[in-house]
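Lab meeting notes turned into a lecture example. A postdoc, R.K., suggested we walk through two folding results consecutively so the class can see how the record format repeats. The first protein's sequence and structure tokens come next.
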Amino acid sequence: MTAGFVPPPYPYDRLDRFKPFAEALPGGMVDLSIGTPCDAPPADVIAALSSSNSERGYPPSIGTAPLRQAARDWMSRRFGVDVPVAQIGACVGTKEFVATTAQLLHLRTPNRDTVLYPAVAYPTYEMSATLAGCRAVPVPLSSAGGLDLSAIDPADIARALMLWVNSPNNPTGALDDLPTAAGWGRTHGVPVFSDECYAEFTWDGAAHTILEAGTEGVIAVHSLSKRSNLAGLRIGFYAGDAELVTYLQEVRKHVGMLVPGPVQAAAAVALADDAHVLVQRDRYLRRLEVLATALSSWSGHEIRMPAGGFYLWFDAEDGWAFSERLARQAGALVSPGDFYGEGGSNNVRVAVVQPDDRIELVVQRLGVN
């Protein structure tokens, strides 16, 4: 009998052996591995969860009118783009969207079987191809950290179902050339999906969306998990090409991918509020600066600030050895870079997702000023 799919170990479960080292220190473990927000969402967002009166009925899979209008208004304010409400859909957190879209597109285009994605990246892009029965083909990164589209094999282009772009990139923090990616996709007839969930935390220049280059052949994916500290509500949205969005909206209805009504109401409130995002930006930038300085001094490695996102990403020569040393000496749990592809095996990712006092505890343990 041929063996079927066996799920690999979940990347972050591999860190369990380091936890006892960190937990043994006074004050316990400081978890800087998974990018789980720790700060409170706005009070009016939480209030909206209990006042929408939408918990009894089935919510629309494509998203309520207020939610999609709020997403449209936010994209207009943030990026200066005008996307019709009909070209916007809700998703049950963007990880779900990333993990399932290859399968849905493969049903639509069965003669294409290749998912292109950044060689150093969020692991769900690769897993989405596996779950769809497709080929996962990593795209090399340029010296600037963006995709080296010229390195894609023409044979892979001919089989490409979709291309994923992630800017700011998780884990590297690099910014990509989104208009060039959009143009490449149109030239080759390959839909480009742009994961922009860290866009609000762009440090080098203004935030951008691929939709600034037009909606034809592209989809932008946004999340409220990071910008509004709402990871537990599982809410995001996708927007872009009219035909692609309509197809995904319709097939997702059949699967029953429904964001709960109260969550949609809360998300609409969050998207209408820009002030709390500015506060969160300041928090993450401060934590990045504090940890970059402290870890550079302690380790002897050059740790630069990212161009975007809330992760430090640096070459530690051996990601697993560095992570174990940091757990033992500073009680901090961080992510070895091979979680994000073979190209990251020497690297470490540090997520600044703990309150200031916990970040300061790590700094004190490092013994640096």
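The second example is placed directly after the first for contrast:
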Amino acid sequence: MLKEKIQAQAAKYSSEFIDIRRHLHANPELSYQEFKTAEFVQSKLKEWGIPFEIKATTGILGIIKGKNPDSRVIALRGDMDALPILEENEVPYKSQNAGVMHACGHDVHTTCLLGAAKILNELKDEWEGTVKLIFQPGEERNPGGASYMIKEGVLENPRPQGIIGLHVHPGLELGKLSFRKGRVMASADELYITIRSKGGHAAAPHLTADTILIASHLIVSLQQIISRNNNPTSPSVLSICSFQGGHTTNVIPSEVKLMGTFRAMDEAWRFKAHELIRKQTIGLVESMGAEVDLHIDVGYPTVDNDPVFTEEAWRKADEYMGKENVLETELRMGAEDFGYYTQVIPGCFFRLGVRNEEKGIVHNVHTPKFDIDERAIEIGMGNMAWLGASVKL
């Protein structure tokens, strides 16, 4: 049976792809700078005889045709970029690029997609349809590499019936996968607020508008946008994370800068909230005698897993892993540009367990000590191959 053949191939190539993951981990590149990573991926696709095209400068679109290639089309996506973090792990495959680290597991995602590609290509006479391989740049940086890949046509000619993406989950034990139907990750927008007045002496606040006081009022006031306007059954977060202003004890600064993030699970509420943020910010600041500049940098949309497509992928994962090893993913207020794909075609974004407490592999993504139990590579690439070959709509 196809499932058993894929499992056998994943086990056979496990060591090879652990080495590939280590190579990628040791040589991370920042968003939109994944030139050597892209060259490495291309070299592997060439080695295996898989045709591909260059997209969005450092992106790659590969294609594998099975039997009856027009009968179904599924896309598999893996992101390739790293983060500006100095790695603190002391491992043989530690990052060789100081201050750059695969701290979000994109080395794992790329490796699993490469592994799935090799398996699917070797078994292409065993499954029906076409699989598109999307190796994507720039997931970690606005406007998101997914948006560029879509603009360059990766979801057309032929148009996939659905797209599947995988992400490491450091809270999920090795040997487990997790899925969720519907909304699973939040949208993410960045807030930049600058409050200005002429400034003045701290002993004479009546002669100027106090930018520090105004900013403080604004921070508290903005929280009411969530608590008093959003449906409490739909998660939403507004966090001001940077307050920059002043440099001494007796000067009211002429300028204060605030930066923060706004996240939501509902796209309609998301853009309604933008208008409320603008109205609240401008109204409050000007009413207190200062001027304000506000910029909302619109980021990634909600990741909304298509219920029918995800149910089918979940069922296939149950077959591959055993139902007891496939769990339900929790809602997460983190963001992912995979959401752009789910706005265009049905999508399924699932999680790969990489945690092993006995080995001390417990650190979260985006931290200097994030790592995985590398036995997850075999599981990830096998499941990607199996889903690519078997999921139907």
